[in-house]
Amino acid sequence: MAAGASHARSHRGGLLASLALFAAVLCGAIAPARAAEPVPVIAAASDLKFALEEIADRFRGATGQDLRLAFGSSGNFARQIQQGAPFELFLSADENFVLRLADAGLTADRGALYAVGRIVLFVPKGSPYSTADSLRGLAAAVRDGRVKRFAIANPEHAPYGRAAEEALRSQGVWDAVQPSLVLGENVSQAAQFAMTGSAQGGIFAYSLALADGVGDRGSFVLLPQEWHAPLRQRMVLLQKAGDTARRFYAYLQEAEARAVFRRYGFVLPGEGS
Q1: How far apart are CA 184 and CA 25, in angstroms?
Q2: Tally of CB atoms within 10 A around 110
Q3: Three-state DSSP state, 160
Q4: φ and ψ at 142, to 5 degrees?
Q5: What integer is the mean pLDDT of 21-34?
Q6: Are 135 and 176 contacting, i.e. CB atoms less than 8 angstroms apart?
Q7: pLDDT per residue over 160-213, tens digit each?
Q8: Are the CB atoms for 88 and 42 separated by under 8 Å?
Q9: 41-116+231-263: what fold?
Q10: What's 214-257 look like in SS3?
Q11: Which of 116, 190, 123, 128 lies closest to 153 in space, CA to CA?
C-alpha cells in the first residue's frame, strides 16, 4: 500500500509538472502576439503625399516594419493631436504647429526640420489663362472672365494656402482674386481642383506638381521664394511613439529618404536654396 501510494503521488507530481511546463510553453507562444506593437499611424501634411509614400515603401522593404500614412492639413492635424488623436509621428508643413505642440508637452522633444517647401502656379490644359501671365496678369484674367475659379488651400489651417495668399498679396492681386477663390481643405485637394479643370488655375505645392502624370494635365511655373514666408517643415515624435515610429523618424533623416525629398523639389536642411 505504501509503495502504491508513493507511486500514485509520484505520478500525480509528474503530471502536474508536465501541465505546468505545457502552460509555460503555451504562454510563451502566445505572449509575443499579445505584445505585438500596433501599426503606427503617421500624420503628414498633404504636400508630402507622393514623396512620403515612396519613402514609406522603401522603409517597409528595408525593415519589414509597417506603418500607416494619414495625409491632411497641418493645422487640422495639430488640433487633432491636442484632442488626443493616437498619432505617433507628425510631419507638419509649418514648423510652428510642431513647436506649439512641444510647448504644450505633447511631443517627445522639439523635433527636426526635414524640408523647406516651394509653391507653383499651375494652369490646366485648355484654360484661357496662361502661366506666362504669371500672378500679375491674374487680376485682369479675373476681371475679363477668363478666370472664374482659382484654387488654393484654405489659408486658415493649411500652410501652403497661407503661402499662396502671401504670394498673391505680394503681387497686389489678392483683393481682385479673392471672390474667385476655390479653397481646398488641404493643398492636395487644391491641386486636384486645378488639375481636373474645376478651376482655371491654382497655386499648390511644387512636390505635387512633380508627381508622375501632372505634366500631362497642364503646365506650371515655380514661384519665387521671396513672395512668401519660408515653408519650414518640421517633424516630431509624439509622446506615445513606439519603436517603429522612432525608427521611421530616424530613417527620414538618412540619405536615402533625403534623396527622395530632394527629387520632389524640397529644399533640404543644410543644403540651402
Answers
A1: 56
A2: 13
A3: helix
A4: -70, -45
A5: 43
A6: no
A7: 999 999 999 999 999 999 999 999 999 999 999 999 989 999 999 999 999 998
A8: yes
A9: D-Maltodextrin-Binding Protein; domain 2 (3.40.190)
A10: HHHCEEEEECCHHHCCCEEEEEEEECCCCHHHHHHHHHCCCHHH
A11: 190
Measure Cα distances from 153 to 86, 156, 205, 271 in Å: 25, 9, 10, 28
User: What would the DSSP string read from start to end of 30-99?
Assistant: HHHHHHPPPPPEEEEEGGGHHHHHHHHHHHHHHH----EEEEE-HHHHHHHHHTT---SEEE-SSHHHHH
41-55 pLDDT tens trace: 999 999 999 999 999
34 has a pLDDT exceeding 60: no
In the block, cell 527622395 appears at 260
In this structure, of 116-120, 134-138, 192-196, 255-259, the range with the lowest mean pLDDT score is: 134-138
Q: What are the start and end residues of each CATH 3.40.190.10 domain in the chain?
A: 41-116+231-263, 117-227
Rounded distance between C-alpha atoms, residue 245 and residue 157, angstroms: 25
**What's the chain's average pLDDT?**
89
Q: Note the CATH architecture for domain 117-227.
A: 3-Layer(aba) Sandwich (3.40)
